[in-house]
Amino acid sequence: MIEALAFEFIQHALIAGILVSFATGIIGSLIVVNRMVFLAGGIAHSTYGGIGLAVYFGLPIFLGASLFAIGAALLIAILTLKKRDRMDTFIGLIWAVGMAIGVILVDLTPGYHVDLMSYLFGSILAVSTKDLYFMAALLLLIISVVTLYYRDILAVSYDSEYARLRGVNVRFFYTFILILSALTVVIAMKVVGLILVIAMLTIPVYIAERLSSSLFAMMFLSGTIATLFTLTGLWFSYAYDLSSGATIIMVSALSLGLFLLFPYKKT
Questions:
Q1: pLDDT tens across 28-45, in order?
Q2: Cβ of 85: how many Cβ atoms within 10 Å?
Q3: 40-70-124 Cα angle (round to 5)
């Protein structure tokens, strides 16, 4: 694959893989420790509605998907904070309705459509320079927020009642984590697609959680592991002409299987 590095699209794919891996590693850690995996799944699949919205109105795909994902995150936050006993019902509803909206808007759009399958299963080799700027900006935002509010996020993640007693605005951080999750899903769809994004948000985090003794170590290690999986998956997809998104997830899943076979120690 060394000779392939001369191609710009390969360079973009590698940079995108690293940026998205660290973004999903950090946000995935927050999703897992806050038990938001199902919520993130609802946001991920409902984001297809944003793709349909962008296609119908002729907007940039990232813009339409981002706005719709943020809207879904806010709606999920409002509903789950007030009706926690009906959380699974609301998530399933938003999940299904979001995808249905996307399909209907695409059907109503006249003329030729972009390859929508690439947004469902990923197309990292099609990452543009503008996409890289968006990914880099989001990763910088995530790192800045986590650095500035690390103690508050830590308190909310592990003991929300204690955090509330300390005066931490639990609702704000709960909602903000969901919004960051939504934006991370949007950038990850270029790498592995909306269907597979939950695996990218959870598999490296699961391994990192077993090896880490703090949230900070978990976020850094999960980002590093996700990067390793992404680059390895890219190599296999290039060498054997396979779909990049699916290959990255299969590398992650096989690595998790091997990890579970051997004893490990926390750092």
A1: 999 988 888 888 888 888
A2: 6
A3: 70
Cut 0.70: pTM above it: yes
252 contact partners, CB below 8 Å, separation of at least 6: 199, 200, 203, 204, 226, 229, 233
Element (H, E) at 62: helix 61-82
CA distance linking residue 256 with residue 55, whole number of Å: 37
Q: What is the pLDDT of residues 213-231, one digit of tens each?
A: 888 999 999 999 999 999 9
Torsion of CA 178, 244, 55, 60, to 10 degrees: 70
Tell which residue, 93, 100, 64, has the closest CA to residue 79. 93
Short-list 128, 145, 170, CA closest to 26: 145
Cα dihedral: 221, 225, 231, 234 (round 10): -140
In three-state secondary structure terms, 158 is: helix
pLDDT at 175 over 60: yes
Mean pLDDT across the stretch 15-35?
A: 91
Amino acid at 114: V
CA dihedral 256, 257, 262, 267 (to 10 degrees): 10
Q: Which helix (H) or strand (E) holds 19?
A: helix 8-33
Alpha carbons 227 and 116: distance in angstroms, whole number: 25
Residue-wise pLDDT for 118-152, tens only, equals 777 777 878 888 889 989 999 999 999 999 999 88
Domains and CATH numbers, the chain: 2-261 (1.10.3470.10)
